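Entry 12.
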Amino acid sequence: MNNEKRLKIFAQLSEAIPNPVTELNYSTAFELLIAVVLSAQATDKGVNKATEKLFAVANTPAAILSLGESGLKEYIKTIGLFNSKASNIIKLCTALMTHHQGQVPENREALEALAGVGRKTANVILNTAFDQPTIAVDTHIFRVANRTGLGPGKNVMDVEKKLDKTVPKVYKKAAHHLLILHGRYTCTARKPKCQNCCIALWCEFKEKK
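Predicted 3D structure (tokens):
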């Protein structure tokens, strides 16, 4: 795919999705971090239901630590893998209090050192909370990047590197959410809505209808 196509694709996505933001509900970097940790193998809708009640009573590392692991589990037990997630969140909150004065760090190395935080989660936090031009490759972005030809790769890291290198600079900050939302609602896994797709003209998906 050439740069002209890429520019047209991102221009069209930006027009179709004028407010590309996460669908997780949060009001602070810490709330976002907890929501993203909880969102692994869970839906944003399910996470939002749980965090609405959790954040009403505990939305800081200190407050979650005062709940304790068993208390935390009561709020997140509707979410998959809640036992391991509760354990990681308690460790994460302890580390924030011990090493970061209760604040979410703004650099990748410190974020990835936290329990339950891998590269993808760190990328989400850096992009969404701290306005850095990172792209967290989830299942939607992996699919869209490979289907369209925007950033083909055999694994998540390949796709991230390709997108990091080729996404036009002007769209770098927004690319993460533009691609996720396009994949979630238009370029869906089983039946992509090619007939209603705003980038169908430039997409290189061989099976598009």
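Annotation: The longest helix spans residues 82-99. The chain is about 60% helix and 0% strand.
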